[in-house]
Task: structure prediction
Amino acid sequence: MGAGSGGLLEEYDAALAKDAMSAFGLVREWMRTDWRSLFAELRERRPIFTTPAFTVVTRFADVTEVLSHEEVFSVRAFGPRLDAALGAPFMLGRDATPMNWREKGLMRLMLDPRDATRVRELTGRLADDLLDAALPAGRVEAVNELFRPVALGVCAEYFGVPGPEPLTLSRWTRAIVTDGFANFLGDPQIQAASVQAGAEMVGYLRDRLAERRAALRAGHDLPDDVFARLVGAGLPAGAGVTDDRIVTNMAGLPLGFVESAPGAMAEAVEQLLVRPAVLAEAVAVAGDPARFDPFVWEALRFSPFFKLLPRICEHDHVLAAGTPRATVIPAGTFVLAAPASAMFDADVVPEPEVFRLDRPAHHRLFFGHGHHSCLGVHVAGAVIGETVRRLLLRPGLRLESRVERSLGIFPDTFVLGLGAGQKREG
Result:
């Protein structure tokens, strides 16, 4: 149903008059299957959409207001679940606390932006090896044969977290992230699976930390990965960087990367492949990462991996104060800020329906915004951009199936055709 027709909201209003739960179910289904139409209608008619269960925020200014006011709109929507999984406080689940500021600064130091070149080279090697392996079949199931293996390879070689083996690490991250960001109804089975996965991950990381400590005591050199940097940092005791905090923060790296990076890759590639003219332009400049990457970022604007970011309103707040859409958000409201909608707000983003490469970085909200924006954005950007670039360098790349997702969020399968018998171009 097209934008501006009013059809979705009329259907919602009719359902709400009869049964609030059925109306909630409609909105949830639209967010999974027809989110573009829903957000377009909401931006036009109800930009701050209040329902009995939650409030959806759709305009650019309002989304950034929510994400910039962490003391009003907190991450209590998912923070306690992450804490439960890891068995300890985690900075992503805290807003503007001393622990958050301290450990966020620490991890930014460990995730040195200067590593982006090195990580890009690693990504390219991983992606080319995986694509070479897929080439004889003339196809690649991109999620599980390219995107996730690349992310897990970066976890192993750059973060220093290979997992007992990659599939186990992958299982842990999916279970924990599902509970934190896709379990809106609080399914106890999903929560229990997350806690179990978290306990296994933390136990594994404790063992790995002990191994690294033993290697240092024996005089062995550690590899230059993030885990080793934390272990060998030699920070003063007053910094509070205990072994427990090292383990918790190391757990946060795969949790913030193994789902979101492959998810972004799948979204970007699909958006490029459904636009043949844009795809041809991207392929033409794929030999130059600096010219190629803007195609990836604009593709992600059309379909970011996380389309909604959950928050809890901690005290009554007038959102969009001074505008005709000003709305009081009561304390305790579950708020869904919608970056996927905000990036199509024509009041801020010119010609939002046009694929343009000249958009400023501050119009991109797919790495988050404000207090909880992506800590490793330089590294993540290198991995996402380079994986997509190496894929598009392959001749004969074609769409054989659209992305299939579980829970409407996580890409599970995405079949692409490859030019059989072709070798890498560079």
